[in-house]
Amino acid sequence: MPEWHLQAKSNEKLLLFFAGWGMDEHPFLHYSPVGKDLIIAHSYTDLLLDKSLLAGYQEIEVFAWSMGVWAASMVLPELQNSNYSISTCTAINGTPFPIDDEKGIPSQLFKGTLDTLSNKTLEKFRLRMCGSKALFNYFLERAPQRDIEDLRSELIAIEKTAGAKSAAAFQWHQIYIGKEDRIFNLENQKRAWPGTAYTIIDAPHYPEQLFKHLLR
């Protein structure tokens, strides 16, 4: 199952955040939503959902970023059609199609990332993700504490799962697309949401200012 980090405050409302590939809880712990518990999902080596973590909340707000949009699209449809009180679902710089030449990350780019993954290429990926040296340095202060082999295993699992099973129909209420996204590019994201309204924002793939706004 994805790994879950719960900041338990015993609130009646929950903010459920699906992070992107290569993440853990550390880049997001400083977002402490007022009046809500926070669960951070990450590490998508499989997509089994522990429903017990979500039981008892009167309201659940879902936010998903990057590869987390696909992960949420895979595991949450059954909750959206059940007794769990999901009030809003927001997708940020990601699509339900993780490896897709038209609506996700192009297959050759994904394969290149997997085949060449090292500490050096990870640093380059994170710089592209952040879009600027200043934001990159900010991210590194809260960097995930995972090693290369762990990240490689996650990529392999995503490739395998994405090739075997398509994301189910899932209702997203709000979509944000970063104009400067160099991971999920702008046009692919726009093609991924036919008939769904989206908002273009002036942000890179890692939209720290938007996170500040949405996750606090």
TrEMBL record:
Organism of provenance: Sphingobacterium siyangense
Protein name: Biotin synthesis protein BioG
Domain of life: Bacteria
